[in-house]
Design goal:
The protein is 63% helix and 2% strand. The chain has 15 helices and 2 strands. It has helices at 19-25, 31-44, 52-59, 63-75, 91-99, 108-131, 138-151, 155-167, 173-185, 191-214, 223-235, 240-248, 258-270, 276-299, 313-319, and strands at residues 79-82, 85-88.
Length: 323
């Protein structure tokens, strides 16, 4: 028994495009390349042969644009060139090969890894639901798996990473990678690490705002100025009370610089002064020593003769004879 289906007329026929095209290829192709691909999909249904000149006229595109578009889709693996034309590859099959890796053994280590992967799979599905409304592109799965291995984030940290980028309306791979790099440099692995990081971040943010306000800075601090503050807070473990002592030392200066503040705070750190009361005591003793030294200098006649005093040194040098 032979069964046949009646051919549909052009009016009722459809050209299907897999969703994977929109999630993986649409954003990386320009409009001309997309036009070429859609036309190829349409023509391939009928097995027709078409020349570049005809395709150029049909799409109203120069031949060189057609050729560059074909080259682009070859590089993406969407087309395979043959002697007499092209094969349009199955996009779903391409992505399946990217994602699929067979598990041939079930050693104890593999079982433990499989259990760990189950937790990760749940985390990834949570990311899919929270940030992609359940339609996350397959390439994200391999990227997330790579980041788990590279950064050793736990599942909660990975979810928090995507939540953070999603809340910033910057849910694209370059930005996610940048934030992940920053968290990795801050030695974040677990969710407790992340909470500690956020606490430090908020502390530094408040101190930066306070320093800028007290220095009457109405423009944002530069990257180098912020780096100074981060060093005082993170490396020296100084809080705002200690930084305020340094800021008070700048009141007599017209344009206090961060270099001057850094010299003060670095000197206190080198002296192992860690509390505000210790620093206040050090400054008080230092001031008293200077005062004692000045009083001693007044009482002591080093040259044993009466020194002439000059009220105006400019006049002194002006009246000095030149031999």
């Amino acid at each position: 028994m032979k069964l046949e289906q009646k051919d549909k007329s052009m009016l009722f026929s459809k050209t299907e495009i897999p969703d994977i095209f929109f999630t993986e290829y649409l954003t990386c192709a320009n409009s001309d390349s997309i036009k070429v691909y859609l036309c190829l999909i349409f023509l391939s249904k009928y097995g027709r042969e078409i020349k570049l000149n005809d395709l150029s006229k049909k799409l109203n595109l120069p031949i060189n644009v057609i050729q560059s578009s074909l080259t682009f889709w070859e590089e993406q693996g969407v087309l395979t060139k043959k002697i007499n034309g092209y094969i349009l590859n199955d996009l779903q099959e391409i992505e399946l090969h990217k994602s699929y890796s067979p598990n041939l053994t079930l050693t104890p280590e593999a079982i433990e890894k499989n259990e760990k992967n189950q937790y990760r799979a749940k985390a990834i599905e949570s990311i899919n639901a929270r940030c992609f409304q359940g339609v996350m592109s397959p390439s994200w799965y391999s990227d997330i798996d790579l980041w788990f291995k590279k950064y050793e984030f736990d599942e909660q940290v990975m979810i928090a990473l995507f939540d953070y980028c999603n809340n910033k309306s910057a849910l694209h791979k370059n930005y996610v990678q940048t934030v992940a790099d920053a968290w990795n440099k801050s030695k974040i692995k677990t969710y407790d690490d992340l909470e500690s990081y956020y606490e430090r971040y908020e502390k530094i943010k408040k101190i930066k705002n306070s320093v800028a306000k007290k220095l009457r800075r109405y423009t944002p601090l530069t990257q180098f100025e912020e780096a100074y503050i981060e060093k005082w807070v993170l490396d020296y473990n100084y809080n705002l009370d200690i930084i305020n002592i340094a800021l008070k030392k700048t009141t007599s200066k017209a344009n206090p610089s961060f270099d001057y503040l850094d010299k003060l705070l670095s000197d206190w750190h080198d002296r192992n002064l860690v509390r505000a009361d210790e620093i206040e005591k050090f400054l008080s003793e230092f001031k008293q020593k200077n005062k004692n030294a000045q009083e001693l200098a007044k009482k002591t006649n080093y040259n044993n003769y009466e020194q002439r005093s000059y009220d105006n040194l400019d006049n002194f040098y002006a009246n000095k004879k030149v031999n």
